[in-house]
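Input:
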Amino acid sequence: MKRWYNIVKILSFCLFWLSWLIVFAQESTLVRAQQLYQAKKIDQAKLAIDSAIMHPDTKNKAETWTIRSFIYFDMYKVSEKLLLNSSLRDTILKSLNTSNNLNPDPDYKANNYKLLNSISGHYFNIGKRLLEDSTNAEKSLQAYNKFKEIGKKTDPNKNFKTEDVQYHLAVGSLFSEKYNKNNEDQKSFEIAKLNLMKVIQIDSNVVSANSNMGIMYFNSGANLFMSIGEYDITKLEFVQDNAVKLFKQAEYFMLKVYRIDNKNTKAVEALYYIYKALNEDAKREMFKAKCKELMIKTE
Amino acid sequence: MNAKIKSVFIYNFTRYFEWPKNKQEGVFTIYVVGKNDNLVNELKTLASKKKVGNQEIEIKNTSTFDVSNLANSQIVYFLNDATKSQGDGVSKSKGKGLLVVSESAGLCKQGSAINFTVVENKVKFEYNKNNAIKLGLKTNDDFKALAINIE
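Output:
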């Protein structure tokens, strides 16, 4: 009987040690992943951390997920940082989200936010870079919205006004330039208008947004005149009505620029041509004199 | 822009008047007195593409009024800087089948058949039918509906 008692005692002892070893093994996997990461052995670190997130003893620890984010971030920044769609980035974001939901201690929380801010910044850069080709405008907006969405996770009260102005001005300028090169490209006109007006709504004194709007409207009016062709005399009234409306819009935006800076050469020159198109001789002459003062050549 | 509109107007005027028989032959001459390169260029472009009936269009331009150009012209247009010559031009055009066009305030009351003006930022034109008749042109009543009428 005593012999059986001893066997059970030894078995229990072994079981205890076995389970301790298993826990320790998982804990050590986490530690090992961290060590491998610090040693820049990222591929091995990835294998270790992917094992740690599967195990019940480590999968509910915030640090496991934070460490995973950092390991994946190292891979991501080498190969996928500039991509709009990145599976590595998705993994990082999921891991950071899981970590934040597991109440990380302040150090891990700070690290999570640091990483979120980096990724948010990457999205901003992707959005800007995609604008190098106007056909990517929709993708660029996706990236920009991601930048804001992730940025809000670290600072829910952030208003993004500066970034909104910067981004929408970039889009608006790109498409207004495109429209000014081809006045039949109404789609570019609409995209430019939408973005520039967003800028003006945030800050009505942004000179280049007002200036771009003014130039676009002026070109629209001029284009209408140039397309007259051999219109019947009865249609000239209609063309002039619409052109005057467009020139008045151009005047509104250009006067705003002029009031902000009365030496702005673009505004002074544009106002000369706007008043010429509007047949307002006195104002045209006034801006002609200002053009002369600023050494701007007029026809 | 203004030049474009005026050139289209001027071309369209030719559809609403009838010139004497002797002016319906040869070249149809639009004589512009004064300086406005944009307008002259627009008219020349138009002349290169269009005809009045079967007549080719020719644009003549002098900075000062040259009466010798009236005899072979169908339209004489006194620009703003040539307003002073308009009275002389009108008196020498009476009964000769010349449409006198001008662009300074009040000239439709001083002999022009058509005078360009600006109303609410738009180019419009005043029309004096009696003057057109005195200048030797047959008129079309539809034209009155398009103009600011000056009696």
